[in-house]
Description:
This protein is of the alpha+beta class. It has 15 helices and 28 strands. The strands form seven sheets. It has a 15-stranded antiparallel β-sheet that branches. A three-stranded antiparallel β-sheet has the order 26-27-28. Helix 3 packs antiparallel against helix 15, helix 6 (340-354) packs parallel to helix 8 (396-416) and helix 14 packs antiparallel against helix 15 (570-583). Residues 238, 254, 256, 260, 262-263, 331-333, 385-387, 389, 506, 571 line the site of the ligand OC[C@H]1O[C@H](O[C@H]2O[C@H](CO)[C@@H](O)[C@H](O)[C@H]2O)[C@H](O)[C@@H](O)[C@@H]1O.
Amino acid sequence: MRIEDYALIGDMQSAALVGRDGSIDWLCLPRFDSPSCFASLLGSERNGHWWLGPTGRKHATRRRYRPDTLILESEWDTPTGTVRVIDFMPPRDVNPDVVRIVEGVSGSVEVSTVLRVRFDYGRIVPWVRRTDGHLQAVGGPDSAWLHSPVPLKGGDYAHRATFHVKEGERLPFVFTWHPSHQSMPAEISAEEQLHETESLWTEWVSQCSYDGPHREAVVRSLITLKALTYAPTGGIVAAATTSLPEDLGGVRNWDYRYCWLRDATMTVDALISSGYIDEAADWRAWLLRAIAGRPQDLQIMYGVAGERRLPELELDWLDGYEDSRPVRIGNGAVEQLQLDVYGEVMGSLYTARTKGLGADERAWSIQRELLDYVAEHWDEPDEGLWEVRGPRRHFTHSKVMCWVALDRAVRYVEEFGRTGPVAKWRELRDTVHAEICDKGYDPVRNTFTQSYGSTELDASLLLIPLVGFLPIDDPRVAGTVAAIEKELLSDGFVLRYPVAEANDVDGLPGAEGAFLACSFWLVEVMAMQGRKKEAEELFCRLLALRNDLGLLAEEYDPRYERLVGNFPQAFSHVPLVHAARALS
Ligand SMILES: OC[C@H]1O[C@H](O[C@H]2O[C@H](CO)[C@@H](O)[C@H](O)[C@H]2O)[C@H](O)[C@@H](O)[C@@H]1O
């Protein structure tokens, strides 16, 4: 199954991927970053999956989300009739549920299901027993129940059923997870939950303030971003998966089920720009808890509840998506120094205030501490926003974002009457600006460069006009944009840095696709330059890369004409929202 063949369903605490063939191949419970119950995405069916569809197992004839929701409807036309499967995860009460309603649309269709629960990332084959017609799977700390309208028979470490669905019939299957030491959870009503889930999403979408071009794509991206938020804490994960490869068959496989300050602040910006202030408030509260403590202990990512230890481990029993090994959980980048995050946090908090988020004394005192840190460390080399695994460098983008941190601090004082050493911040802001223009700019080629003294380009330099570091008509900005368009395009999409030099640039073997966020940044820059037609064309080409449900992975690989990397990815959906706005 290609990455674009998957749909996302979720309950804002975790999410599942449902294949075009009706198989749930990825589901971690109870949280995004918990061990999985179904992990065939990263291995084989033996690592857990739940298939449900017409006997014979074919791709759905059509599928869609119910308008303005995360409720998936897959339909199969068969020689004997049409059947629909409605998949969703209801808003959580106590335990997480996955609901699958099989609906006869016309005629009579033979439908089958195969359930293989495997806890702990495909490793634990649970003990399964039938009680009062229900199935219970238990393994270690995990337990799952399947409430099924038809009996399932066991064999070969799987449970199966085949049955007929006639026009007008609706057969609900409910899969519920709970800790194995607790007793059986109360059974939910699938139809009531369908109604509630539909209302939740449509009501949320009705608050969207965006009314410009490409609204449908924007709304789908916003729903996807909302689905990546962890409702109990306000944290936001970068993607719903781990280890979907950036290089098919390669080693660039990372766990994105955590809350990056960078990705989360960008997500908050996109939500705020579309009228969603509550999410910004929740995220600020999450941030204050997560980073509480000494500024030097700030991490660039945390668990969804603010956990700090996210050790990177390799799961050697999983073969990886299309043999892309290793499968990793945890993320070693947690230890890195990435100076850009200070600018992203300060920028996002500033934007939220300008859009109506109320003042918070604790927030300002933490912001001041972060600024003290920036003042002391801005001139150090770091790993940068791409989280390179090679040696630290003076990345130009990191320095630009340090300038953003100082600039937004000054604006906070000027616009919101905050107190702080504003004269010092102004002076340092100018010092940082001057150094970047001196050391991060190559006058011979008339372009900013990836890092001080390097000749490489980097797509993050497209952010220079977007964050207000220099105006769009500055000749150095024009030169940088032109150089990126000349040297960093692959099939018209933007690479984050030259892939040929990938080994040198990021310390990793292999190549990768075009990083989708960077192409959306180019759309915004083109729009700012008044190149509306080119911007619109590139935007439409990017929209065409989304799958049939409007979802994007982290990258698109022109070599294979496929989406690659974790999926769906906030970092791709965020700039889609901004680029659509730029075109309006
Ligand atoms: O390129 C190597 C790095 O790749 C991952 O980082 C990328 O994903 C992050 C989450 O979306 C994003 O914030 C970052 O900008 C991307 O480069 C991975 O998480 C790193 O461990 C890895 O070193």
